[in-house]
Hints:
The protein is α+β, with helices and mostly antiparallel strands and 243 residues long.
Amino acid sequence: xxxxxxxxxxxxxxxxxxxxxxxxxxxxxxxxxxxxxxxxxxxxxxxxxxxxxxxxxxxxxxxxxxxxxxxxxxxxxxxxxxxxxxxxxxxxxxxxxxxxxxxxxxxxxxxxxxxxxxxxxxxxxxxxxxxxxxxxxxxxxxxxxxxxxxxxxxxxxxxxxxxxxxxxxxxxxxxxxxxxxxxxxxxxxxxxxxxxxxxxxxxxxxxxxxxxxxxxxxxxxxxxxxxxxxxxxxxxxxxxxxx
Length: 243
């Protein structure tokens, strides 16, 4: 098919793409609004060795960051936070809402909590940051000053605030519209496939039997004396080799 054929199809059936895209976008919007919002709160902890300029200490701390992340994600640490913050959840639920991301390039630990209540999410990461910092401080008291590791909160979660984690309505609507448009394109191809064998013009005849059409008998009444009924016309093909 040529480009002109595709353009002709779009002019004829393009409305299908628009309708399916609109239906999918509206459905995605309604689905997003029907979901319960989940909020996210994040706080970062700075983890710096006492001998920050020492290459060995800094390199060892990169491995320690992963260990710290594992320590934060324990039931023991979670229970301390739940008790201190008086949260109405068990440790399994707490850990299911808490996410820890160590970053060795910046020597930080990012704590993120997700919950339906933004205040609960902020309280979770704030108290976890405090409990972990206190735990590291107790450990530091038993170490030589040169081997201590300072852990502190870079910024209060209450200064940073929270954001909606899900649903992302705009993203869902856009994805729904694109998916609907794709469905519309598939529907158009299917309809065109169903009509492939239907002959409507001389061009269709030429493509179907690969001969040149000389002309067409104009539509006339089957019996003019009987006041006519259905009209019909015939295409006269030119056979190969004929003059």
